[in-house]
Design a protein that fits this description.
It is elongated and about 80 Å long. It has helices spanning 53-59, 63-72, 145-151, 165-181; strands at residues 3-8, 14-20, 93-94, 100-101, 107-111, 117-122, 142-143, 152-161, 184-187, 195-196, 203-213, 216-227. It is an alpha+beta fold.
Length: 236
């Protein structure tokens, strides 16, 4: 199903255009070398409750005693179940002691650049900031490609596509403007801030790159959710 967004150009004109991800490579399949039969993947039971490492360490706290038990027998294997195929399953959350959790309390946890927790607060739904009927502004903030790749980790890209002749001319002019400038346009939400494409989705920095060749164009929206910053002195 196609996705759409609206945006302004440098002349304050806006249009609704299509957004698509990069083309997916063809699916690959594996076959046996001998008879060319297709190879199928299967999920098998690796370990069962009561036979994992934590359970074994509770039963034999002394590492030497645990090693002797492993040599003498196979306490880590549930002979009746290990190796069986896994059928339809449901994901559940468990506590540190293995008990099933039936309710979750959602929190928003923010970590610092060194992995340390900075804040913990109640989770609040965040609405999408990229919508079809609200055009993204032309910020006028142009950055060189070198500056973008040095400051931001680019994790995804989207292609802007025309849906009719008018939007072709609209996007072609944007692409030509950016190519002539030799820079990328910083893109943000209509009210400023990160680009969020779905409710409670990831917020992204956006950088629009334009290329023109003959009568064709390409507009690519590069996305980043991580800005590269130097560590404070003494923490490197």
């Amino acid at each position: 199903m196609p996705r759409f967004l609206s945006l302004y150009d440098n002349r304050r004109r806006d249009a609704r255009v299509e957004v698509s991800g990069p083309a997916q490579p063809p699916r690959r399949s594996f076959v046996a070398a001998a008879d060319r039969r297709p190879i199928r993947s299967a999920r098998l039971i690796k370990v069962t409750e009561g036979h994992d490492l934590a359970a074994l360490q509770r039963q034999w706290p002394d590492p030497e005693a645990l090693a002797r038990a492993l040599v003498a027998g196979d306490p880590e294997l549930d002979i009746e179940k290990v190796g069986q195929r896994v059928g339809t399953t449901n994901q559940v959350w468990v506590s540190a002691d293995g008990k099933i959790l039936y309710a979750a309390h959602a929190l928003r946890v923010t970590d610092g650049p060194l992995g340390n927790e900075i804040s913990r607060e109640e989770f609040v739904d965040v609405e999408a900031t990229v919508q079809e009927d609200v055009a993204l502004p032309w910020t006028g903030r142009l950055l060189t490609a070198e500056e973008v790749v040095r400051r931001f980790a680019l994790v995804q890209k989207l292609q802007l596509r025309h849906i009719n002749g008018l939007t072709f001319d609209f996007l072609f002019e944007i692409a030509r403007t950016l190519q002539e400038s030799g820079k990328l346009l910083r893109v943000q939400a209509a009210k400023g801030g990160a680009l969020i494409f779905q409710r409670n989705g990831t917020g992204y920095y956006g950088f629009l790159e334009g290329r023109v060749e003959g009568e064709g164009f390409r507009l690519v929206l590069h996305l980043s959710n991580f800005e590269l910053k130097p560590l404070p002195r003494g923490e490197a």
